[in-house]
Structures are given as structure tokens and as C-alpha cells.
Write a structure and sequence with these properties.
single chain; 123 residues; mainly beta; 0% helix
Length: 123
């Protein structure tokens, strides 16, 4: 069994995780935060029927916890999308030991950061 774990450590303002494979896509999570609030969210991706996304709002307080998501066994690609509502921005997460970071904060709004497709297998 492969282990697929998203570990989110910064979100300012909104970080979305989408996964896709031939013929289907799934929203894994929407994590909202800002105001320098703590973000320490773990999302294990495990085998099982997809039951919808995880939606967490930490704009007014910190976010911590373990929030499993289920996907059917198979090969997937994942995209992380960083959305800013204006002002500074910050997006950081690890996936299967690889770190992804939006880099230095800049001002802007809308879709301000995204990853290339990240390949993984659920088994």
C-alpha cells in the first residue's frame, strides 16, 4: 500500500487541491486561512469511495488536524492552486516528502500560484 500524505503548513488565502485521471476529476480539499494564523493540516489520501472534499476555514483562527480523504485505487495527477484575495500571500505544503512553496510574498489577487501536475498512485 502506498502512502500519500498532504501536509499543509501555510495558506494565505485559499489553497485548493484537485486530482484527476482519465475521465474524472475530484476536489480533495479547500483550505482557507490568513492573518498569519497557524496552519498544520494533514490530509492522508487512502483507498475508498470518494465522498466529497474537505473544506476548512481558518481565516479567523488557526487550523490543525488530520483529515483523511478517500479515492478509488488508481493513478492520479494532483494540482495545487493558490488563490489570494488581495495583500500578501503564502502557500506551503509537503506531499510524499517533497516540499512545494509559493516563494516570497507578493501582492495580487486571483489565481496567483499553482503546481505542475504531481503524479501519484493510490493502492
Amino acid at each position: 500500500m502506498s502512502e500519500n500524505i498532504i501536509k499543509v503548513i501555510a495558506t494565505d488565502n485559499e489553497l485548493k487541491f484537485l486530482v484527476y485521471q482519465w475521465g474524472a476529476s475530484f476536489e480533495v480539499a479547500t483550505i482557507m486561512s490568513g492573518n498569519n494564523n497557524l496552519v498544520d493540516v494533514t490530509i492522508p489520501i487512502i483507498v475508498g469511495p470518494y465522498q466529497g472534499r474537505i473544506k476548512l476555514n481558518g481565516v479567523d483562527s488557526g487550523l490543525t488536524g488530520n483529515f483523511p480523504i478517500h479515492l478509488a485505487a488508481g493513478e492520479y495527477s494532483m494540482l495545487a492552486l493558490g488563490i489570494d484575495w488581495g495583500g500578501p500571500q503564502d502557500f506551503k505544503f509537503d506531499f510524499n516528502g517533497v516540499s512545494y512553496d509559493s516563494g516570497p510574498s507578493v501582492k495580487g489577487d486571483g489565481l496567483v500560484w499553482y503546481t505542475k501536475p504531481i503524479l501519484f498512485t493510490v493502492s
